[in-house]
Every structure is written in structure tokens, then in C-alpha cells.
Amino acid sequence: MAVYTQVSPDQADALLARLGLGPQQALVPVASGIENTNYFVSTAEGEWVLTVFERLAAEQLPYYLRLMAHLAAHGLPVPAPRPDASGGLVHTLAGKPAALVERLPGAPVDAPDIHHVALLGSVLARMHLAVADFAMHQPNLRGPAWRAEAGQHAQAWLQGAPAELLRAELAFQQTLADAPALAALPQGAVHADLFRDNALFDGAPGQEQLSGVFDFYFAGHDHFIYDLAVVLNDWCIDLDSGALDDARAQALLQAYQAVRPLQGAEQRLLPALRRAAALRFWLSRLDDWHRPRDAQLLTPKDPAHFERVLRHAVDQPWHP
Ligand SMILES: Nc1ncnc2c1ncn2[C@@H]1O[C@H](COP(=O)(O)OP(=O)(O)OP(=O)(O)O)[C@@H](O)[C@H]1O
Ligand SMILES: N[C@@H](CCO)C(=O)O
């Protein structure tokens, strides 16, 4: 169930008219997604995704939508938000903030192979280059301050070996966060949640193209290799063991570095940032598990998966 706000054809048409688009020819609720209400909308001008934001306030949205517009304007496969006559990207529908973005073709890939991760690695590197002149700034809201607080809560839910892993990793990451070597790494606006379900591929099997990446609502300012670590930890992981798959990781990194070669310090710190990324999603999943926002709407994702990813990253660090 992903439609929390019912949008009528008349409401959709009124918004489309404000955005210089013809009336809707089809308005189809999107079943997947848990944060927001999404509809696929067809007009004479093209295909769109209408999002009604259920949690984020209007004043929080410009950073995310401007980042998407910036990346799209730089030729990245990111859906461009449709502006109104005054250039605004945040609209209102049924009293809630809303946005209309281009609909990408294709479908997500659950079990990516070397071909898929290479395409993604190249696009990720291009995104990191393209934000050099992105003027807005927002910290990563799932960064060190959030981690410390979430880590405190999580201590109460864990015992034994997981509790010890968490305690040690929080201490390790705190030391890392204070290190001048980390502060000196290249950084900028990053996606920070580019999992397999936030990218679509289109085309014949074996020859798919990456049609685009979306869901920028955890984006913020962070190190580029943190973003790379988030991606490695999802796209290149053996889902049963939590270990990094060397062939996929090498393919992703090679494609990334063909566009944006990593500095020596980035290569050295990538294993530590993989640990930071695994910890971030272990903590957010623990929080969703133990403090569900709305038990009826949210099926929490398995926290133990990221405990395994973290344990592997600690015990068997992978160096590019
Ligand atoms: N620009 C787009 N083009 C094509 N499909 C899209 C686009 N944006 C979203 N979708 C589709 O809508 C679904 C829900 O989108 P999204 O993942 O942003 O949902 P959400 O509820 O906002 O977030 P979450 O994934 O965190 O639950 C996606 O799985 C995808 O199928
Ligand atoms: N990608 C996240 C959910 C959205 O932040 C996870 O898999 O835990």
C-alpha cells in the first residue's frame, strides 16, 4: 500500500495546467514505495511521476529537487522535476507538498551482474563530478551526529556479539570522523542511498542501459567515497553472506575510476568508509525494526543483513 493520498483526475489536471501540461490521459497509482504517494501520469507531452510527500515538509524539498534538476541539466540520467511558471519545483496537491518528475523507462535489477554495476559506477562518478558547481548545501542528515544518537538507542536493543560489534564500530567511526585525513577527502552533494531499488535499467537482457537513478531524499553533503561505499555495499554484496563480491566490486570501481580516478587517500580510506556505510544502514534498519513509525505501513528491512555486511567489512577489508 503506497497511496496514502488519493489524487483525483481533476486535482491532477489542475496541477498539470499550472505546469503548462495538458490534462492527464492516465493516472495510475504506484504500488511500490513506502515513504510517499506516487502516481504514474500520462499526458500528451510525455510520461511523469507525481509524488505527494507524506513526511518531508515543503521547505525541506528544494535541496533534493534542485539537486535532481542540476544533475539532469548536466546530462545525468536523473529525472528532471517539472517547474511551474515562476521556476518553482515544489508544488501543492491536496494540501501537501508535491513534485512532478519525468518518468524513466525500465525496471530495477534485483541481481546485478558486472554489466549493470559498471554502468552504475560510471554514472556515479559522473554525478560526483557534476556537483562541483551545485550551489546549495545540506549536511548528510544520516551523518555523524545522527549516528551517535541512533547508536545510543541501538545499544539498548542488542546483546552479546552484536552489541560488542556496535560499540567497537561506533568508537572506530568517531575516531575516523575526527581525523584530518577524512576531512581532506573530496566531497560534495551525494545521493547517499543509491540502492538497487533506486535505479532502472531498460533494454534487452545483457544489453540493458541504465535509464536513470531516483529517490534523492537522503541526499546531502558527504565524501564521494562514502557514496561509493553505500553503492558497493548494496550492488556488490553476496546477499546470503554479506561478503563483498570481488568481481562486481572491481567492475564497479574500474568503471568509476575511468571517469573519476580515486586519490591515494580515498583508496586508503574506502575500507573504513564501507564500514561507516554498513553501520549507517544497520542503525536505520534497527531503528525501523524497534521503533516502527507506522507498523501497518512499513515492513521493516532486515537489520541483520547489514550487521553481516559490517562484520565482513571489519574482518576482511576489501582494498581497491
Ligand atoms: N522517475 C521515475 N521514473 C520511473 N519510475 C519511478 C520514478 N520515480 C519513482 N518511480 C517508481 O515509483 C516507485 C516508488 O518510488 P520511490 O522509491 O521514490 O518511493 P518512495 O515511497 O518515495 O520511497 P521508498 O523507496 O523509500 O519507499 C519506485 O519503485 C519506482 O518503481
Ligand atoms: N535503502 C535503505 C532504505 C531507504 O533508506 C535500506 O535498504 O535500508
Automatic annotation (TrEMBL):
Its EC number is 2.7.1.39. It catalyses: L-homoserine + ATP = O-phospho-L-homoserine + ADP + H(+). Belongs to the pseudomonas-type ThrB family. One of its GO terms (molecular function) is ATP binding. This is Homoserine kinase. Keywords: Amino-acid biosynthesis, ATP-binding, Kinase, Nucleotide-binding, Threonine biosynthesis, Transferase. One of its GO terms (biological process) is threonine biosynthetic process. Pathway: Amino-acid biosynthesis; L-threonine biosynthesis; L-threonine from L-aspartate: step 4/5. Pfam families: APH. Residues 28-262 form the Aminoglycoside phosphotransferase domain. It comes from the Bacteria. InterPro entries: Aminoglycoside_PTrfase, Homoserine_kinase_II, Kinase-like_dom_sf, Pseudomonas-type_ThrB.
